[in-house]
Write a structure and sequence with these properties.
This protein is mainly β. It has one domain: Immunoglobulin-like (Sandwich). It contains no helices and eight strands. The strands form two sheets. A five-stranded mixed sheet has the order 2-8-7-4-5, with no helix packed on it. Strand 7 and strand 8 form a beta hairpin. The protein is elongated and about 60 Å long.
């Protein structure tokens, strides 16, 4: 299982702009490197990141083999109402990892 780290405020005032940071621990192998025996290390990359806020898309990113290991994303959103932030990463084979956080808006 991948290690996911998310930083977002637990509470915000209605209309406030909040900063959200998300990182997934992943090797992001390009498929171009070789191991100690000279064999190519198979490609293994995260290809997509999505964040929704109460099902509305707030951030989406596509990654390529040139993306560093442990992809990190930082973005902003406007706090509109209490709800759920859902973070989803998808790899080249369609495997997904998800994490949810609650944002309470006052």
């Amino acid at each position: 299982m991948a290690v996911i780290r998310i930083s977002n405020p637990e509470t915000a005032r209605r209309g406030e702009i909040i900063e959200i940071k998300a990182m997934i621990q992943h090797p992001m192998e390009t498929g171009y490197r070789r191991n100690e025996q000279g064999k190519i290390i198979p490609r293994d990359i995260i290809t997509r990141f999505r964040c929704t806020y109460n099902t509305a898309l707030v951030c989406e990113a596509e990654f390529s083999p040139g993306t560093a290991a442990n992809p990190f994303v930082s973005f902003h959103a406007r706090a509109a109402e209490t709800g759920t932030l859902e973070f989803t990463w998808t790899d080249q084979d369609g495997k997904t990892w998800s994490e949810r956080r609650t944002l309470t808006v006052t």
